[in-house]
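Renewal narrative, Specific Aim 1. Our central claim is that a sequence can be written position by position from structural information alone. The example that follows is taken directly from our test logs and has not been curated for this report. It begins with the C-alpha coordinates describing the chain, in the order in which they were read.
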Protein backbone atom coordinates (compact mmCIF):
# COMPACT_ATOMS: atom_id res chain seq x y z
CA UNK A 1 0.00 0.00 0.00
CA UNK A 2 1.30 3.47 -0.87
CA UNK A 3 0.96 6.52 1.41
CA UNK A 4 -1.59 7.95 -1.02
CA UNK A 5 -3.74 4.87 -0.68
CA UNK A 6 -3.47 4.92 3.11
CA UNK A 7 -4.57 8.55 3.10
CA UNK A 8 -7.57 7.74 0.93
CA UNK A 9 -8.63 4.93 3.26
CA UNK A 10 -8.49 7.00 6.44
CA UNK A 11 -11.36 9.02 7.83
CA UNK A 12 -8.89 10.81 10.06
CA UNK A 13 -5.80 12.84 9.17
CA UNK A 14 -2.39 11.62 8.00
CA UNK A 15 0.67 13.81 8.54
CA UNK A 16 3.82 12.78 6.69
CA UNK A 17 7.39 14.07 6.44
CA UNK A 18 6.33 16.00 3.32
CA UNK A 19 4.03 18.04 5.52
CA UNK A 20 5.61 21.22 6.98
CA UNK A 21 3.41 20.77 10.04
CA UNK A 22 4.98 17.44 11.07
CA UNK A 23 7.48 18.94 13.52
CA UNK A 24 4.81 20.92 15.36
CA UNK A 25 2.34 18.03 15.30
CA UNK A 26 5.06 15.79 16.74
CA UNK A 27 5.73 18.19 19.62
CA UNK A 28 2.02 18.49 20.35
CA UNK A 29 1.80 14.74 20.90
CA UNK A 30 3.62 15.00 24.21
CA UNK A 31 2.24 16.63 27.36
CA UNK A 32 5.67 17.23 28.94
CA UNK A 33 7.22 20.58 27.98
CA UNK A 34 10.48 18.65 27.45
CA UNK A 35 9.88 16.99 24.07
CA UNK A 36 11.73 13.98 22.72
CA UNK A 37 13.62 14.45 19.42
CA UNK A 38 11.45 13.75 16.42
CA UNK A 39 11.43 10.13 15.36
CA UNK A 40 7.99 9.64 13.80
CA UNK A 41 7.79 9.94 10.03
CA UNK A 42 4.03 9.48 10.00
CA UNK A 43 1.32 10.58 12.40
CA UNK A 44 -2.12 9.09 11.93
CA UNK A 45 -4.87 10.95 13.74
CA UNK A 46 -7.35 8.11 13.90
CA UNK A 47 -11.01 9.11 13.65
CA UNK A 48 -12.34 5.58 14.24
CA UNK A 49 -11.22 2.03 14.96
CA UNK A 50 -11.04 1.23 11.24
CA UNK A 51 -8.41 3.98 10.89
CA UNK A 52 -6.34 2.29 13.58
CA UNK A 53 -6.62 -1.01 11.69
CA UNK A 54 -5.67 0.57 8.35
CA UNK A 55 -2.68 2.32 9.88
CA UNK A 56 -1.46 -0.84 11.59
CA UNK A 57 -1.75 -2.85 8.35
CA UNK A 58 0.15 -0.16 6.48
CA UNK A 59 2.92 -0.12 9.11
CA UNK A 60 3.16 -3.92 9.05
CA UNK A 61 3.51 -3.98 5.25
CA UNK A 62 6.01 -1.13 5.24
CA UNK A 63 8.25 -2.40 8.05
CA UNK A 64 7.50 0.57 10.31
CA UNK A 65 7.45 0.53 14.09
CA UNK A 66 4.27 1.90 15.67
CA UNK A 67 3.43 3.70 18.89
CA UNK A 68 -0.14 4.26 19.99
CA UNK A 69 -0.60 7.64 21.68
CA UNK A 70 -3.40 8.26 24.15
CA UNK A 71 -2.72 11.68 25.66
CA UNK A 72 1.10 11.72 25.51
CA UNK A 73 1.27 11.93 29.31
CA UNK A 74 4.03 9.38 29.88
CA UNK A 75 6.75 11.79 30.97
CA UNK A 76 9.50 10.36 28.73
CA UNK A 77 7.47 11.04 25.59
CA UNK A 78 7.59 7.37 24.65
CA UNK A 79 4.31 7.76 22.74
CA UNK A 80 6.18 9.66 20.01
CA UNK A 81 9.11 7.25 19.74
CA UNK A 82 8.31 5.13 16.70
CA UNK A 83 8.24 5.48 12.91
CA UNK A 84 4.46 5.85 12.97
CA UNK A 85 2.42 7.35 15.81
CA UNK A 86 -1.24 6.43 15.88
CA UNK A 87 -2.91 9.23 17.79
CA UNK A 88 -6.04 7.98 19.55
CA UNK A 89 -6.99 11.46 20.79
CA UNK A 90 -10.26 11.50 18.83
CA UNK A 91 -11.45 8.13 20.16
CA UNK A 92 -13.30 9.49 23.14
CA UNK A 93 -16.61 7.65 23.31
CA UNK A 94 -17.97 7.02 26.81
CA UNK A 95 -21.04 4.90 27.49
CA UNK A 96 -22.26 4.22 31.01
CA UNK A 97 -24.65 1.42 31.90
CA UNK A 98 -25.95 2.72 35.21
CA UNK A 99 -27.97 -0.37 36.07
CA UNK A 100 -25.09 -2.76 35.38
CA UNK A 101 -22.57 -0.36 36.99
CA UNK A 102 -20.27 -0.67 34.02
CA UNK A 103 -18.87 1.50 31.26
CA UNK A 104 -17.31 1.23 27.81
CA UNK A 105 -14.56 3.82 27.61
CA UNK A 106 -12.55 4.80 24.56
CA UNK A 107 -8.89 5.67 25.10
CA UNK A 108 -9.01 9.48 25.02
CA UNK A 109 -11.58 9.84 27.80
CA UNK A 110 -9.88 11.79 30.57
CA UNK A 111 -10.05 11.36 34.34
CA UNK A 112 -11.81 14.69 34.67
CA UNK A 113 -14.49 13.86 32.12
CA UNK A 114 -15.09 10.43 33.66
CA UNK A 115 -15.40 11.99 37.12
CA UNK A 116 -17.95 14.54 35.92
CA UNK A 117 -20.11 11.99 34.13
CA UNK A 118 -19.90 9.39 36.91
CA UNK A 119 -20.85 11.95 39.57
CA UNK A 120 -24.18 12.48 37.77
CA UNK A 121 -24.97 8.80 38.25
CA UNK A 122 -23.67 8.40 41.80
CA UNK A 123 -20.90 6.17 40.49
CA UNK A 124 -17.13 6.24 40.78
CA UNK A 125 -13.94 4.66 39.48
CA UNK A 126 -10.32 4.62 40.68
CA UNK A 127 -9.48 7.56 38.43
CA UNK A 128 -5.94 8.97 38.28
CA UNK A 129 -4.93 11.95 40.39
CA UNK A 130 -4.76 14.52 37.58
CA UNK A 131 -7.73 15.51 35.45
CA UNK A 132 -6.05 15.68 32.04
CA UNK A 133 -4.69 12.10 31.98
CA UNK A 134 -6.66 9.80 29.64
CA UNK A 135 -7.68 6.21 30.29
CA UNK A 136 -5.55 5.02 27.37
CA UNK A 137 -2.10 4.59 28.91
CA UNK A 138 -3.35 5.06 32.47
CA UNK A 139 -5.29 1.80 32.52
CA UNK A 140 -2.80 -0.09 30.35
CA UNK A 141 0.06 0.63 32.76
CA UNK A 142 -2.02 -0.21 35.85
CA UNK A 143 -3.55 3.02 37.12
CA UNK A 144 -2.62 4.21 40.60
CA UNK A 145 -5.78 6.18 41.21
CA UNK A 146 -7.79 7.86 43.92
CA UNK A 147 -8.95 5.46 46.61
CA UNK A 148 -6.94 2.63 45.09
CA UNK A 149 -6.69 1.10 48.57
CA UNK A 150 -10.41 0.31 48.55
CA UNK A 151 -11.13 0.18 44.80
CA UNK A 152 -7.84 -1.45 43.79
CA UNK A 153 -5.30 -0.51 41.16
CA UNK A 154 -7.53 0.69 38.30
CA UNK A 155 -6.69 -2.05 35.80
CA UNK A 156 -8.31 -4.58 38.12
CA UNK A 157 -11.65 -2.91 37.45
CA UNK A 158 -11.19 -3.60 33.72
CA UNK A 159 -13.45 -6.46 32.62
CA UNK A 160 -12.62 -6.56 28.90
CA UNK A 161 -10.64 -4.71 26.26
CA UNK A 162 -11.07 -4.21 22.52
CA UNK A 163 -7.67 -4.47 20.87
CA UNK A 164 -6.25 -4.02 17.37
CA UNK A 165 -3.47 -6.58 16.97
CA UNK A 166 -0.31 -6.30 14.86
CA UNK A 167 -2.05 -7.94 11.88
CA UNK A 168 -4.84 -5.35 11.99
CA UNK A 169 -7.47 -7.69 13.46
CA UNK A 170 -9.83 -6.24 16.06
CA UNK A 171 -10.40 -8.67 18.94
CA UNK A 172 -12.07 -8.58 22.32
CA UNK A 173 -10.15 -9.91 25.29
CA UNK A 174 -11.61 -10.84 28.68
CA UNK A 175 -11.15 -13.52 31.32
CA UNK A 176 -12.96 -16.06 29.10
CA UNK A 177 -11.99 -14.76 25.64
CA UNK A 178 -8.38 -14.27 24.54
CA UNK A 179 -7.38 -14.46 28.23
CA UNK A 180 -3.66 -14.02 27.53
CA UNK A 181 -4.24 -10.69 25.81
CA UNK A 182 -6.51 -9.69 28.70
CA UNK A 183 -3.79 -10.68 31.19
CA UNK A 184 -1.28 -8.45 29.39
CA UNK A 185 -3.67 -5.51 28.90
CA UNK A 186 -3.82 -5.09 32.66
CA UNK A 187 -0.38 -3.66 33.34
CA UNK A 188 1.92 -4.29 30.36
CA UNK A 189 1.99 -0.53 29.65
CA UNK A 190 4.36 0.42 26.83
CA UNK A 191 5.29 -3.26 26.39
CA UNK A 192 1.78 -4.14 25.22
CA UNK A 193 1.63 -5.75 21.77
CA UNK A 194 -1.51 -4.16 20.37
CA UNK A 195 -3.65 -1.03 20.51
CA UNK A 196 -6.50 -0.85 23.00
CA UNK A 197 -9.42 0.91 21.35
CA UNK A 198 -11.88 0.49 24.24
CA UNK A 199 -11.95 -0.59 27.87
CA UNK A 200 -14.99 -2.18 29.51
CA UNK A 201 -14.85 -1.42 33.21
CA UNK A 202 -16.69 -2.17 36.41
CA UNK A 203 -17.82 0.95 38.27
CA UNK A 204 -18.14 1.50 41.99
CA UNK A 205 -20.74 3.16 44.21
CA UNK A 206 -19.77 6.83 44.65
CA UNK A 207 -18.62 7.74 48.15
CA UNK A 208 -21.16 9.97 49.91
CA UNK A 209 -18.35 12.04 51.38
CA UNK A 210 -14.79 12.77 50.28
CA UNK A 211 -12.97 14.79 52.92
CA UNK A 212 -9.34 15.84 53.09
CA UNK A 213 -7.16 16.99 55.97
CA UNK A 214 -3.72 18.52 55.47
CA UNK A 215 -1.03 19.12 58.11
CA UNK A 216 1.89 21.24 56.96
CA UNK A 217 5.28 20.83 58.69
CA UNK A 218 8.77 22.21 58.30
CA UNK A 219 11.16 19.80 56.63
CA UNK A 220 13.03 19.02 59.85
CA UNK A 221 9.89 17.35 61.24
CA UNK A 222 10.37 14.52 58.77
CA UNK A 223 11.26 11.85 61.36
CA UNK A 224 8.28 12.61 63.58
CA UNK A 225 5.89 12.83 60.62
CA UNK A 226 7.11 9.54 59.19
CA UNK A 227 6.89 7.74 62.54
CA UNK A 228 3.34 9.03 63.14
CA UNK A 229 2.22 8.12 59.62
CA UNK A 230 3.63 4.60 59.96
CA UNK A 231 1.70 4.00 63.19
CA UNK A 232 -1.49 5.77 62.15
CA UNK A 233 -1.74 4.06 58.76
CA UNK A 234 -1.07 0.63 60.33
CA UNK A 235 -4.58 0.83 61.83
CA UNK A 236 -6.25 2.78 59.00
CA UNK A 237 -8.85 1.19 56.73
CA UNK A 238 -8.32 0.91 52.98
CA UNK A 239 -10.48 3.94 52.13
CA UNK A 240 -7.96 6.43 53.54
CA UNK A 241 -5.39 7.64 51.06
CA UNK A 242 -2.33 9.06 52.81
CA UNK A 243 0.47 10.93 51.03
CA UNK A 244 3.31 13.15 52.15
CA UNK A 245 4.07 15.82 49.62
CA UNK A 246 7.46 17.52 49.63
CA UNK A 247 7.57 20.85 47.86
CA UNK A 248 8.80 24.43 48.16
CA UNK A 249 6.97 26.48 50.79
CA UNK A 250 4.50 28.92 49.24
CA UNK A 251 5.56 32.59 49.58
CA UNK A 252 2.95 33.32 52.27
CA UNK A 253 4.41 30.68 54.63
CA UNK A 254 6.80 31.84 57.37
CA UNK A 255 9.59 29.40 56.41
CA UNK A 256 11.97 29.38 53.49
CA UNK A 257 12.89 26.28 51.50
CA UNK A 258 10.80 23.14 51.50
CA UNK A 259 7.87 21.87 53.51
CA UNK A 260 6.11 18.60 54.17
CA UNK A 261 2.37 18.26 53.71
CA UNK A 262 0.76 15.22 55.29
CA UNK A 263 -2.38 14.81 53.19
CA UNK A 264 -5.16 12.37 54.10
CA UNK A 265 -8.19 11.93 51.87
CA UNK A 266 -11.08 9.71 52.96
CA UNK A 267 -13.64 8.22 50.56
CA UNK A 268 -16.50 7.36 52.90
CA UNK A 269 -20.11 6.27 52.92
CA UNK A 270 -21.05 9.42 54.84
CA UNK A 271 -19.64 12.56 56.41
CA UNK A 272 -19.69 11.19 59.97
CA UNK A 273 -17.60 8.21 58.94
CA UNK A 274 -15.16 10.43 57.04
CA UNK A 275 -14.70 12.79 60.00
CA UNK A 276 -14.25 9.91 62.44
CA UNK A 277 -11.59 8.29 60.26
CA UNK A 278 -9.66 11.53 59.85
CA UNK A 279 -9.86 12.15 63.62
CA UNK A 280 -8.53 8.67 64.34
CA UNK A 281 -5.71 9.16 61.87
CA UNK A 282 -4.75 12.49 63.46
CA UNK A 283 -4.16 10.85 66.87
CA UNK A 284 -0.49 11.11 67.72
CA UNK A 285 0.25 13.57 64.88
CA UNK A 286 3.28 15.72 65.70
CA UNK A 287 2.75 19.23 67.08
CA UNK A 288 4.32 22.19 65.34
CA UNK A 289 2.24 22.45 62.18
CA UNK A 290 2.83 25.53 60.07
CA UNK A 291 -0.70 25.30 58.78
CA UNK A 292 -3.69 22.95 59.06
CA UNK A 293 -6.81 22.20 57.09
CA UNK A 294 -9.32 19.86 58.68
CA UNK A 295 -12.09 17.83 57.07
CA UNK A 296 -12.34 19.85 53.86
CA UNK A 297 -14.96 18.53 51.39
CA UNK A 298 -13.02 17.53 48.28
CA UNK A 299 -15.23 16.02 45.59
CA UNK A 300 -13.35 14.94 42.46
CA UNK A 301 -13.58 18.35 40.76
CA UNK A 302 -11.91 19.98 43.76
CA UNK A 303 -9.24 17.26 43.90
CA UNK A 304 -8.45 17.89 40.23
CA UNK A 305 -8.25 21.65 40.75
CA UNK A 306 -5.71 21.09 43.51
CA UNK A 307 -3.53 18.58 41.65
CA UNK A 308 -3.45 20.67 38.46
CA UNK A 309 -1.63 23.37 40.45
CA UNK A 310 1.09 20.94 41.54
CA UNK A 311 1.82 19.74 38.01
CA UNK A 312 1.30 22.61 35.62
CA UNK A 313 1.23 21.92 31.90
CA UNK A 314 4.06 23.37 29.83
CA UNK A 315 6.82 22.83 32.42
CA UNK A 316 9.72 20.49 31.74
CA UNK A 317 9.48 17.23 33.69
CA UNK A 318 11.73 14.29 34.56
CA UNK A 319 9.93 11.72 36.67
CA UNK A 320 10.58 8.36 38.26
CA UNK A 321 8.87 6.20 40.86
CA UNK A 322 9.38 3.39 43.33
CA UNK A 323 7.27 0.74 45.01
CA UNK A 324 8.73 -0.17 48.38
CA UNK A 325 8.10 -2.39 51.38
CA UNK A 326 10.77 -0.66 53.47
CA UNK A 327 9.69 1.45 56.46
CA UNK A 328 8.04 4.80 55.83
CA UNK A 329 10.75 6.69 57.77
CA UNK A 330 13.43 5.11 55.56
CA UNK A 331 11.75 5.97 52.25
CA UNK A 332 10.47 9.39 53.25
CA UNK A 333 13.87 10.25 54.77
CA UNK A 334 15.70 9.41 51.52
CA UNK A 335 13.21 11.31 49.37
CA UNK A 336 13.40 14.38 51.62
CA UNK A 337 17.23 14.30 51.53
CA UNK A 338 17.11 14.16 47.73
CA UNK A 339 14.57 16.97 47.48
CA UNK A 340 16.87 19.32 49.37
CA UNK A 341 19.39 18.80 46.54
CA UNK A 342 16.89 19.42 43.70
CA UNK A 343 18.37 21.96 41.26
CA UNK A 344 14.89 23.37 40.58
CA UNK A 345 12.68 24.51 43.50
CA UNK A 346 9.54 23.77 41.44
CA UNK A 347 10.20 20.04 41.87
CA UNK A 348 7.93 17.98 44.10
CA UNK A 349 7.78 14.46 45.50
CA UNK A 350 4.84 12.38 46.67
CA UNK A 351 5.27 9.47 49.05
CA UNK A 352 2.08 7.49 49.52
CA UNK A 353 1.62 4.98 52.35
CA UNK A 354 -1.05 2.36 51.76
CA UNK A 355 -3.25 0.85 54.45
CA UNK A 356 -2.46 -2.80 55.33
CA UNK A 357 -6.07 -3.48 54.25
CA UNK A 358 -5.50 -2.02 50.77
CA UNK A 359 -6.49 -4.31 47.92
CA UNK A 360 -3.72 -6.40 46.50
CA UNK A 361 -3.02 -7.23 42.87
CA UNK A 362 -4.50 -10.10 40.89
CA UNK A 363 -2.76 -12.30 38.34
CA UNK A 364 -1.97 -9.86 35.53
CA UNK A 365 0.96 -8.10 33.91
CA UNK A 366 0.72 -5.47 36.68
CA UNK A 367 2.92 -7.37 39.07
CA UNK A 368 4.93 -4.94 41.21
CA UNK A 369 3.36 -3.20 44.15
CA UNK A 370 4.42 -2.25 47.65
CA UNK A 371 3.00 -0.61 50.77
CA UNK A 372 4.75 2.61 49.79
CA UNK A 373 4.57 4.38 46.43
CA UNK A 374 7.04 7.19 45.94
CA UNK A 375 7.21 9.44 42.90
CA UNK A 376 9.77 12.18 42.32
CA UNK A 377 8.88 14.93 39.85
CA UNK A 378 11.74 17.10 38.65
CA UNK A 379 9.98 20.25 37.35
CA UNK A 380 11.73 23.21 35.73
CA UNK A 381 11.46 25.70 32.88
CA UNK A 382 14.84 26.42 31.32
CA UNK A 383 16.09 23.83 28.77
CA UNK A 384 19.64 24.55 30.00
CA UNK A 385 18.69 22.74 33.21
CA UNK A 386 17.69 19.53 31.40
CA UNK A 387 20.97 17.70 32.06
CA UNK A 388 21.40 18.67 35.74
CA UNK A 389 17.73 17.85 36.44
CA UNK A 390 17.91 14.43 34.78
CA UNK A 391 21.22 13.66 36.53
CA UNK A 392 19.72 14.69 39.87
CA UNK A 393 16.65 12.48 39.32
CA UNK A 394 18.78 9.47 38.41
CA UNK A 395 21.15 9.92 41.36
CA UNK A 396 18.08 10.22 43.60
CA UNK A 397 16.53 7.05 42.27
CA UNK A 398 19.84 5.16 42.55
CA UNK A 399 19.96 6.12 46.23
CA UNK A 400 16.37 4.99 46.80
CA UNK A 401 16.60 1.84 44.65
CA UNK A 402 18.01 -0.44 47.43
CA UNK A 403 14.76 0.23 49.36
CA UNK A 404 12.60 -0.54 46.32
CA UNK A 405 10.75 -3.49 44.86
CA UNK A 406 10.04 -2.01 41.44
CA UNK A 407 8.90 1.04 39.52
CA UNK A 408 5.55 2.01 37.95
CA UNK A 409 5.17 2.15 34.14
CA UNK A 410 3.14 5.36 34.05
CA UNK A 411 5.68 7.33 36.04
CA UNK A 412 8.92 5.54 35.26
CA UNK A 413 12.06 6.99 33.69
CA UNK A 414 11.83 4.78 30.59
CA UNK A 415 14.83 6.52 29.01
CA UNK A 416 17.16 4.76 31.43
CA UNK A 417 18.90 1.60 30.29
CA UNK A 418 18.75 -1.64 32.31
CA UNK A 419 18.24 -0.88 35.98
CA UNK A 420 17.57 -2.46 39.31
CA UNK A 421 13.96 -1.26 39.67
CA UNK A 422 11.79 -3.05 37.13
CA UNK A 423 8.24 -2.33 36.00
CA UNK A 424 7.27 -6.00 35.94
CA UNK A 425 8.21 -9.02 38.03
CA UNK A 426 10.67 -11.34 36.27
CA UNK A 427 7.90 -13.89 35.62
CA UNK A 428 5.50 -11.26 34.24
CA UNK A 429 8.20 -9.72 32.04
CA UNK A 430 9.04 -13.13 30.56
CA UNK A 431 5.35 -13.82 29.89
CA UNK A 432 4.84 -10.43 28.23
CA UNK A 433 7.85 -11.11 25.98
CA UNK A 434 6.53 -14.55 25.11
CA UNK A 435 3.07 -13.18 24.26
CA UNK A 436 4.59 -10.29 22.29
CA UNK A 437 6.62 -12.77 20.22
CA UNK A 438 3.38 -14.62 19.47
CA UNK A 439 0.99 -11.72 18.83
CA UNK A 440 3.53 -9.28 17.36
CA UNK A 441 6.26 -11.50 15.86
CA UNK A 442 7.66 -8.68 13.70
CA UNK A 443 7.98 -6.31 16.65
CA UNK A 444 5.68 -3.67 15.19
CA UNK A 445 5.05 -2.36 18.71
CA UNK A 446 8.68 -2.65 19.72
CA UNK A 447 8.62 -6.02 21.56
CA UNK A 448 11.28 -8.74 21.19
CA UNK A 449 10.49 -9.04 17.45
CA UNK A 450 11.73 -5.48 16.93
CA UNK A 451 15.29 -6.69 17.40
CA UNK A 452 14.92 -9.21 14.59
CA UNK A 453 13.21 -6.57 12.45
CA UNK A 454 16.05 -4.10 12.95
CA UNK A 455 18.78 -6.72 12.29
C1 LIG B 1 0.16 15.27 35.12
C2 LIG B 1 0.20 13.77 35.20
C3 LIG B 1 -0.39 13.12 36.27
C4 LIG B 1 -0.39 11.73 36.35
N1 LIG B 1 -1.02 11.13 37.41
C5 LIG B 1 -1.09 9.78 37.46
C6 LIG B 1 -1.78 9.12 38.51
O1 LIG B 1 -2.34 9.72 39.40
N2 LIG B 1 -1.82 7.77 38.52
C7 LIG B 1 -1.22 7.04 37.54
O2 LIG B 1 -1.32 5.83 37.56
N3 LIG B 1 -0.56 7.63 36.55
C8 LIG B 1 -0.47 8.98 36.48
N4 LIG B 1 0.20 9.58 35.47
C9 LIG B 1 0.88 8.72 34.49
C10 LIG B 1 -0.05 8.32 33.37
O3 LIG B 1 -1.05 7.45 33.82
C11 LIG B 1 0.75 7.59 32.29
O4 LIG B 1 1.77 8.42 31.84
C12 LIG B 1 -0.10 7.12 31.13
O5 LIG B 1 0.74 6.50 30.20
C13 LIG B 1 -0.82 8.26 30.48
O6 LIG B 1 -1.63 7.78 29.44
P1 LIG B 1 -1.45 8.32 27.97
O7 LIG B 1 -2.50 7.67 27.17
O8 LIG B 1 -1.38 9.79 27.96
O9 LIG B 1 -0.02 7.71 27.60
P2 LIG B 1 0.84 8.07 26.32
O10 LIG B 1 1.99 8.91 26.78
O11 LIG B 1 0.00 8.56 25.22
O12 LIG B 1 1.38 6.63 25.91
C14 LIG B 1 2.45 6.02 26.59
C15 LIG B 1 2.63 4.64 26.03
O13 LIG B 1 1.57 3.82 26.49
C16 LIG B 1 1.15 2.94 25.45
N5 LIG B 1 -0.26 3.22 25.15
C17 LIG B 1 -0.98 4.31 25.46
N6 LIG B 1 -2.24 4.14 25.07
C18 LIG B 1 -2.32 2.93 24.49
C19 LIG B 1 -3.38 2.18 23.90
N7 LIG B 1 -4.63 2.66 23.83
N8 LIG B 1 -3.10 0.96 23.41
C20 LIG B 1 -1.86 0.46 23.46
N9 LIG B 1 -0.82 1.12 24.00
C21 LIG B 1 -1.06 2.34 24.52
C22 LIG B 1 2.04 3.16 24.29
O14 LIG B 1 3.11 2.25 24.35
C23 LIG B 1 2.57 4.56 24.52
O15 LIG B 1 3.84 4.74 23.99
C24 LIG B 1 0.23 10.96 35.35
C25 LIG B 1 0.85 11.62 34.27
C26 LIG B 1 0.83 13.01 34.19
C27 LIG B 1 1.50 13.71 33.05
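The sequence written for that structure reads:
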Amino acid sequence: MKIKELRSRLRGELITSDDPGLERAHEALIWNGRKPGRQARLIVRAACVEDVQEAVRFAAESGLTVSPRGGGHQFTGIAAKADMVIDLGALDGLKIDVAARSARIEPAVTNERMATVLARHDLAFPLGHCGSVPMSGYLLGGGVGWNSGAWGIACFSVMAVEVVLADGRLVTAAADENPEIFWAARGAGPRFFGIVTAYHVRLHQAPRAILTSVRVYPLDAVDQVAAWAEQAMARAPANIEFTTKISAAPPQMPVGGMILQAIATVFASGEAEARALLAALAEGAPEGTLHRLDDVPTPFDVLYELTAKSMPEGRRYAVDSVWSDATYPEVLGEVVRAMTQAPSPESIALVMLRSPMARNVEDAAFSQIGRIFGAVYGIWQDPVADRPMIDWLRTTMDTIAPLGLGTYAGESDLDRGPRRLKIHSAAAAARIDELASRFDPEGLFGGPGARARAA
